[in-house]
UniProtKB/TrEMBL annotation:
The lineage of its organism: Eukaryota, Rhodophyta, Stylonematophyceae, Stylonematales, Stylonemataceae. This is Cation-transporting P-type ATPase N-terminal domain-containing protein. Its main location: membrane. It is found in: Endomembrane system. It comes from Rhodosorus marinus. The keyword Magnesium applies. The keyword Magnesium applies.
Length: 97
């Protein structure tokens, strides 16, 4: 299965979709199937005490994680224009009265 489609990258024991499911569903039985938090950390190649160290990110470490799991950035919606905000405000009943 393609990693972009949620398949498991061979460098890691879990795929993006599996991680999303663990987080969104808060499924403790699934977490226990992976060996708890320590098991998930082991599959992802992370030390549960120190996390990902700078040494691990040098070279292709960060690139491999970005490729497998995507960027860890929130995509904000574009801001509303001033005129859109005025239009919305003038639809308010208290302003119309």
């Amino acid at each position: 299965m393609d990693v972009e489609q949620g398949g498991v990258d061979p460098r890691f024991g879990l795929g993006k979709n599996e991680l999303v499911e663990l987080i969104e569903e808060r499924d403790h039985t699934k977490l226990e199937e992976y060996g708890g938090v320590e098991g998930v950390c082991k599959k992802l190649g992370i030390d549960p005490e120190t996390g990902i160290t700078g040494d691990e990110l040098r070279g292709n470490g960060l690139g491999a994680r970005k490729e497998a799991f995507g960027s860890n950035e929130f995509k904000y919606p574009p801001p509303k224009s001033f005129f859109k905000l005025c239009f919305i405000a003038f639809q308010d009943l208290t302003i119309l009265i």
